[in-house]
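An instance follows:
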Amino acid sequence: MSQTDPSQTQAPRFTVQEVSEQVQRLYGKSFPEVKELESYSDQNFYLKDEVGREYIFKVSNSMIAKDVLDFQHSVMKRLADRNVCKVARICHTSQGEEIATIRGADGGSYLVRLLTYLPGRFLADVKPHTPEILEELGTMMGSIAASLLDFCHSGAHQFLVWDVKNLLKIEPEIQYIANEKERALVKSVLAQFRNYVIPIMPDLRTSVIHNDGNDYNVLLGKKGDDSWSVTGIIDFGDSVHTYTVCELAIALAYAIQGKEDIPAAAIPVILGFHKALPLNANELEVLYYLICGRLATTVAMSAYRQVLEPENKYLKVSEKPAWDALKKLMTLGPVESTRLFFSACGMQRPGDPGREASEILEVRKEKLGPSLSVSYDRPLKIVRGYGQYLYSREGRAYLDCVNNVCHVGHCHPRVVEAAREQVAMLNTNTRYLHDNIINYAEKLTSLFPDSLSVCFFVNSGSEANDLALRMARTYRHSKETIVVDHAYHGNLTSLIEISAYKFDGPGGSGALEHIHKVPMPDPYRGPYKYDDPQAGHKYAAHVGEVISNLAKEGKKPSAFICESLPGVGGQIVMPPHYLEQAYSLARRAGAVCIADEVQVGFGRVGDYFWGFETQGVVPDIVTLGKPIGNGHPLGAVITTPEIASAFHNGMEYFNTFGGNPVSCAVGLAVLEVLLEENLKENARDTGNYLKERLTELIERHTLIGDVRGMGLFIGIELVKDRRSLEPAAREASAVVNHMKERGILLSTDGPLHNVIKIKPPIVFNRQNADMLVENLDQVLAMKEFKS
């Protein structure tokens, strides 16, 4: 049974008539007006006596101890004595008691109290929430927290699921969230809490706090100028001893609900709180995660209670705005949010303590190989990442439109947590049995056609392609390999040999005797264009020519290897039927068909999970890398049982780190995030929208020759002349550098270095697409790009 199951408590069920009789008996006077108010696990009644004085009669549930109620009264008295804000007064019974006991018809005993009614309007009922009101809210909550810093009471140390420090206790309730994507979102909130709050907890201030500064507990009163001002607070039922900054986090969790601009709503509250009780750096570092935690508790508990009490409409009151706020906050992300929080307090977030970018560049020249390149004319020092954003040493956010490695977003909390948990427990090799590798292999192969059912795990896409070559050559007893011109398959010696982008490029020595090139199936720049319905067959025919030439020499091909959508070759979408025909020709000659999915696998193309599906084929071997581990060094080869058996020829294949428990935990987490957060669908929808908007730019900017792609795999080819297709490599580089200065990271690719590639983390959204297109439109309109 869940620790938060309300069935563990006995909720009061008194009628209005019963309450009328009880309060007259206890307080020695009649209350002509009595009505029940909405509540959660207690009962609250509004009372008015014969002379018009108003009260609230509170009946606590059976689990509440008297010491806890005495604690709440002591908090109220402290605030009243120090004139912090308006709070209700506690009324005494005829016997002089602040807390009395009544018995219900169910035989249970319930603690009751009578409090004076505080006049005013709830914050929830006054709109709009002006910056002045929000700052006053922050000031009141900060003043409450400040006045309770030295306050102690034995009743303060109770367990409350609504205490944000207990966030992980809501984990059992997550299952009741019906929507899969929303359920995944809450799981991510818990993962963030584990990764970023728990380690800092020992350094946070603790004290008693009100713990429920929601907009139905905060009261406003009219000012002389007909405006509103924050005056007081009610309901101390969740007061507890916890982390002091939770007082602000909870107030913010409610203050941002229903607001379009989250920072605009949050900053005045933080400013007011900070003025009343200065926050320290540790508190500001965890504030974002605590706000998310409170919102996550709200939605998870609402989902759980709705299952138990489907008729209780009160449970749904705050659910939708809480979901909306949580989604917006998670989209904003912790890095940008925390930067704003520090700024609101007039504080500088502790920066990267490392060296200046200029010094790093000098040391790189001396200590690192000179063949290592850096991006942009003015290189960036990046110190943080989250989602689709990277952050510089100075705290500037950059929209990452090119990093296809961090596939489900930089530092995705679920992936980080998976690595953290497993690395703290065990990391070893595949000679020991472990659940992670088989769980991951089962999950991964379930996403492939049935014939592709055997996994080999490695550490990178390069290792995967190297192993695939070995397997094909072992299986077919041949080294003859058919490759695509301008292709790139990795940085190992064996892969430079099959990557025309390298062996025909600067420093290359050309193709070795056993490597056979076929033209890149590029329907824009190649010999067979978009308007040729037979382009795919014509490009594939070149594979047949190579095979015929080999046969004349008495040779047979071992493999035909091709990226499912060529990336370094220029973000190419191959013409229909190309792979279908090329695979058919290769297989008839006995060759193994290898699909390199290192760039485009795992849902990037949107309509399909794997790039080879766009061509309606099933390869014999598939190689995976980059997005498979979201930045963790992981790769895989997926093949058929027949090929795997042939590779088992007496020579053991062993990879010290391939398939280790940590890597498999990370890989499994990436798959779970992809599926639960519907990221393939996001890549499709956002990618289609982005491609459509980019295509509109062709009419306005003659520099754009072609816009192509699928999902979030898009290329923009720049040309000086649309007829001659003269490449605009210098202009492409200049555009990328201008965009970087505007906070948008792009890169160039293609054999002529004139293709701007767009391959962002697939959490990239429509707002990001708009930002990219609008800025690109402005850059291309600059004088230097006009002929």
Observations:
- Confidence is low (pLDDT under 50) at residues 1-8.
- The longest helix spans residues 281-308.
- The two ends are 72 Å apart (CA to CA).
- The longest strand covers residues 109-116.
